[in-house]
């Protein structure tokens, strides 16, 4: 099983230097949000893209993450009926199975 996270390419590049990824979502850090947002599958990812990323003018990277050994909790936000994986720790680079350029167009 894997989970997915859409990252700005610049944030992913910074993580390569830092040794871990600490961005929760667009413009918010792990510290600000309390967790890193993720998606359970590509269908859920498409909904997230439609709601939050369709107007992003920066390069994106799709992170495919192996959640084994991570503090991942399946939670349903108050404004949703969907359950999403939330990562309650910095994301170690070794947990990222792949990082693929993700064009929105």
Question: What would the keywords be for this entry?
Answer:
three-stranded antiparallel beta sheet; transferase activity; 3 helices; DUF952; alpha+beta; transferase; Glutathione S-transferase; ADP-ribosylation fold; globular; 105 residues; single chain; 35% strand
Please provide a brief summary of the model.
This protein has 105 residues and is of the alpha+beta class.
Provide an overview of this structure:
It is built from 3 helices and 10 strands, in the order βαβββαβαβββββ. It has 105 residues and is of the alpha+beta class. It is globular. The termini are far apart.
Quote the beta fraction.
Answer: 35-45%
Quickly count the helices: 3
Please outline the major beta sheet: 3 strands, antiparallel
The figure for the number of domains is 1
**Overall helicity:** 10-25%
Write down the overall geometry: globular
Instruction: Give the uncertain stretches in residue-range form.
Output: none
**Would you tell me the overall average pLDDT?**
95
CATH superfamily heading:
Protein of unknown function DUF952
Task: Give the secondary structure arrangement, pairings included.
Elements lengths: L2 E6 H10 L1 E2 L1 E3 L2 E2 H4 L2 E2 L4 H12 L6 E6 L6 E4 L8 E4 L3 E2 L3 E6 L4
């Amino acid at each position: 099983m894997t989970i997915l996270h859409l990252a700005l390419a610049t944030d992913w590049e910074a993580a390569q230097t830092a040794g871990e990824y600490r961005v929760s979502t667009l413009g918010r850090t792990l510290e600000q949000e309390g967790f890193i947002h993720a998606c359970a599958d590509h269908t859920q990812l498409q909904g997230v893209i439609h709601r939050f990323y369709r107007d992003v003018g920066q390069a994106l990277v799709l992170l495919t993450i192996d959640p084994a050994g991570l503090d991942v909790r399946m939670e349903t936000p108050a404004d949703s009926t969907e359950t999403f994986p939330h990562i309650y720790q910095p994301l170690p680079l070794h947990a990222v199975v792949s990082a693929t350029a993700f064009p929105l167009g």
